[in-house]
Write a structure and sequence with these properties.
14 strands; 19% strand; single chain; alpha+beta; globular; 12 helices; 440 residues; seven-stranded antiparallel sheet
């Protein structure tokens, strides 16, 4: 590798948003450089191809002022916002960068917009707050197509769903290499409290207050799904009746995931003992999905729904981060699924709170906290969602078991790769779901 290529490899592999830390990088190259700023030195958008020793590759976005730089530099984020506000298309060697404002959304935003801070949370992107009014999210690992978050935010904004940070603009790359969303600009919810942190803080106190707020969250979730399933004229969002073929494809995909995970369970980890030899049992429980009649409709959905994706404000809940599960491809995240998949994700989040409370805060949840949280959220959701989208009664309960089990298997893979200390949570969830009676 040349010295420039080596510098790219060292810089990108050292970043927290680099998603392939266990793979060996063989090569790095800049496949396009688009100079979008007029300053000195100017701001460049770089598309960098990281090629692995297996022959596969990922494409990452860097922002640079002449030399290798990082987005955290205030002038980079602020300059991007100014360019989005003006609406600009800039050609590069292989393609163009288009910076697009949402009409009227940046009125009153001046050229002296300044960075307030970079958000330092666990994520695969880079998010920067500006003037405590806007948040700019940069997608680091790029995939072809419209990012699901941009697609969903545009739809929800156009259809009047109020419980999201308003979309202000975005920028994208269009060229021979790929067409891809590079980043989005949104309203910043400055007074929002993360639902996960709020749940942990109220475990030992204000329990009834928080459960009452979960009633409201159930209604907001139902409204989200009702709006997402409300437009039969938009092919990307029109609700559909699931076919037996689509359900079979889903089951086959989950089967493959289960086989990969259960074959590679570490032999020396006692936390995994309750799951050993139960892979086929997990498969059989998930295959129930293809034997359930009247499952409702499939629609676009959040895709990675949990308490950390809900901000609590004085005006109610605000839902964020519509990218979907980061370990899944963009086509998978764009696929229409039952809205109950989101509901199951939130139910699994309650299980995480009940387990993490003693671990993180030294506070045990009150008796039956998880069961009460589930009941409050579910009752509000059932009462408020468009009834054509979901089944009722025992069929809904059976589907929720299936989707909770799918989610718990996904969590098992995530914790194995990222947080082995948290393995007991998905393990306990899988065992509980396998041992539960099937609703009839």
């Amino acid at each position: 590798m040349t010295s420039e290529q080596q510098a790219l490899v060292e810089f990108i592999t050292a970043q927290r948003w680099f998603g392939s830390k266990t793979r060996d990088v063989a090569h790095a190259s800049v496949v396009d450089r688009v100079t979008i700023g007029a300053g000195e030195p100017p701001l460049d958008v770089l598309l960098v191809e990281i090629r692995f020793d297996t022959g596969t590759h990922d494409t990452y976005q860097l922002l640079s002022h002449g030399a290798l730089g990082v987005l955290a530099e205030p002038e980079s984020a602020a300059e991007l916002v100014r360019l989005i506000r003006r609406g600009t298309t800039v050609p590069g060697r292989e393609g163009t960068v288009e910076l697009i404002p949402v009409a009227g959304s940046l009125d009153g935003v001046s050229d002296d917009v300044a960075v307030s801070r970079q958000i330092g949370v666990e994520q695969s992107n880079t998010s920067v707050v500006l003037d405590d009014r806007l948040i700019l999210k940069i997608f680091r690992r790029l995939e072809p197509g419209v990012n699901p978050e941009l697609e969903l935010l545009r739809f929800l904004t156009e259809h009047g769903f109020a419980h999201i940070p308003r979309l202000a603009g975005w920028y994208q790359y269009v060229g021979r290499q790929m067409e891809s969303t590079l980043g989005i600009l949104q309203q910043f919810v400055s007074a929002g409290r993360d639902g996960w942190e709020l749940a942990l803080e109220t475990l030992g106190v204000r329990t009834e207050w928080f459960l009452n707020e979960l009633d409201d969250l159930g209604r907001v979730t139902a409204e989200l799904h009702t709006v997402l399933g409300s437009d039969p004229t938009d092919p990307s969002f029109a609700p559909e009746q699931p076919s037996s073929e689509s359900l079979g494809l889903l089951t086959a995909t989950v089967d493959e995931e289960i086989e990969e995970i259960f074959l590679d369970l570490p032999e020396d980890d006692p936390e995994l003992e309750p799951l050993r030899g139960r892979g086929e049992e997990v498969r059989e429980r998930l295959r129930l999905l293809t034997n359930i009649g009247g499952v409702g409709r499939v629609i676009r959905h959040h895709g990675d729904f949990h308490l950390g994706q809900a901000l609590h404000t004085d005006d109610g809940w605000v839902l964020i981060d519509f990218e979907g599960e980061p370990a899944r491809s963009v086509p998978e995240r764009r696929r229409k699924r039952s809205p109950l998949r989101d509901v199951a994700g939130m139910l699994r989040s309650f299980a995480y709170v009940a387990s993490a409370g003693p671990l993180q805060r030294g506070v045990a949840p009150p008796p039956n906290w998880e069961e009460r949280a589930r009941a409050v959220f579910l009752d509000a959701y059932r009462d408020s969602v468009d009834p054509t989208l979901v089944p009722s009664g025992a069929v809904m309960d059976k589907l929720l078991q299936v989707f909770e089990l799918e989610k718990a298997v996904y969590e098992l893979r995530y914790e194995l790769n990222n947080r082995p200390d948290w393995l007991p949570i998905p393990v306990a969830g899988i065992v509980r779901l396998l041992d539960a009676e099937v609703p009839v």
